[in-house]
Amino acid sequence: MDEDLYEKACQNTRIQTMWAFQNQLFGIAYRYSEATRQSWLKEWEKMMEFCRVNHPASTFSPAFHEVVYNNAGITYYTKEEPVDEDLKKNPNKLIFHYIEKNLTGQAQESAMALLFLRDANEEKYDPEILPLEERFKQLYPHSKWQPLINEAIAKNKAFNQAKTPDYIHFPNIDNAKTFKDITDLYKGKVIFMDIWATWCGPCRASFAYVKPLQEYAKANDIVLLYLSIDRPEEDAKWRKMAAHYDLMGEHVRVQEAFKDEIYTTFGNAQKALSISRCVIIGKDGEIKFKSAASPEDMEKLKSQLKEAAQTGA
């Protein structure tokens, strides 16, 4: 076997082994005694020596970026090494700091570059990642990663600088105590509701199919209501994402006052809510389809909306 390929294969095995070990460590560290946690951390240090994460060939392993990011978490959260509190407030800044401090050469360059690419590929669009690009350019002014990083940064900026069109509304629901308080805002109209969250990949993927629904809703006086189950700290990102995907309609984020009601009504017996979830509400405010067709199946969805219009008056 080619010596270079052999080295890469060996490192891939080490990195994959480290990844499996990390996943076990995370579970054990927070469920068992302090003595057990410390014993696993000692084993982790031995694994760090054996797996040689900083080796250039490590970067060819598909698990490389996961291992690096997990090591940052183990270092600053499980092992609790001291670090600036401002860094701990943002995961990307903290990981970048860890990479700069603990990796060198090709491993460092690749790990930093993957941070930007992952932000774009997973549609995180963290605005805090933008200043980190300048530091990367200082460290690697001639990096072959730069064209890909430029694309990722451009996507991030486009997302964070997007203007919200006037057909995307964020009604004030501060006084809403129940889900009915929300639907009553649109009494007398059929409501198509999409329950989603910014972190939900399938939800975001479904937005590629909303244009025909938007046209149908406009022609038939149907309200498009997007109910986000994001946490309060995701409020800014939620608003930006509505504009990014051009989600014409009404946008509300679930509030503590009626959060339990949403999970009870649309979740399973254990109140686990699977999203994305489409719902159709009649003109009388009653739920007609608790699990409606999605915009991807527009013909079926049209049929359900027509039925709701006839029976929900």
Broad shape = elongated
Secondary structure category: alpha/beta
Instruction: Average the pLDDT over all residues and give the rounded result.
Output: 94
The arrangement of helices and strands along the chain is HHHHHHHHEHEHHEHEHEEH
Helix percent reads 40-55%
Q: What's the helix count?
A: 14
Low-confidence stretches: none
What strand line-up does the widest sheet have? 1-4-3-2-5-6
Largest sheet: 6 strands, mixed
Q: What would you report as the Rg, rounded to the nearest angstrom?
A: 24 Å
Please state roughly what percent of the residues sit in beta strands, choosing from under 5%, 5-15%, 15-25%, 25-35%, 35-45% or over 45%: 5-15%
Cα distance, first to last residue? 74 Å
Number of strands: 6
Can you tell me about this structure?
This protein is of the alpha/beta class and about 325 residues long. Strands 1-4-3-2-5-6 form a 6-stranded mixed sheet. The N and C termini lie far apart (about 75 Å). It is elongated and about 70 Å long. A hairpin with a 5-residue loop joins strand 5 (about 275-280) and strand 6 (about 285-290). The protein contains 14 helices and 6 strands. The protein has helices at about 5-30, 35-50, 65-80, 85-90, 90-100, 105-120, 130-140, 145-160, 180-185, 200-205, 210-220, 235-245, 255-265, 300-310, and strands at about 170, 190-195, 225-230, 250-255, 275-280, 285-290.
